Amino acid sequence: MKKIQRPQLTNAVRLSAREMNSLHFSPKHTVLTPALLEKMAGGRTDADKGA
User: Fold this and answer.
1) What is d(CA 38, CA 9) in angstroms, rounded to the nearest whole number?
2) Half-sphere exposure of residue 38, counting CA atoms within 13 Å on the CB side?
């Protein structure tokens, strides 16, 4: 079984139910990956470092 490591999110905050309901994502159904979560949280991924 493949093990996925948790991203190190230093600036993550917990959201209330009301705050979560106010979030709107693209209707394209983007799959949330640890790298994407880190990027959304303001962190830099390995792919970003090369650019």
Assistant:
1) 6
2) 14
The pLDDT of residue 45 is 52
What is the pLDDT at residue 16?
Answer: 93
Could you tell me which of 15, 11, 17, 20 has the C-alpha nearest to residue 39? Answer: 11
Q: What angle do CA 48, 21, 30 make, to 5 degrees?
A: 35
CA–CA distance, 7 with 47 (Å, rounded to integer): 15
1-47, pLDDT tens digit by residue? 899 898 888 888 888 999 988 887 777 777 788 888 888 888 655 55
Which two structure tokens, joined as six digits, stand for 2? 């493949």
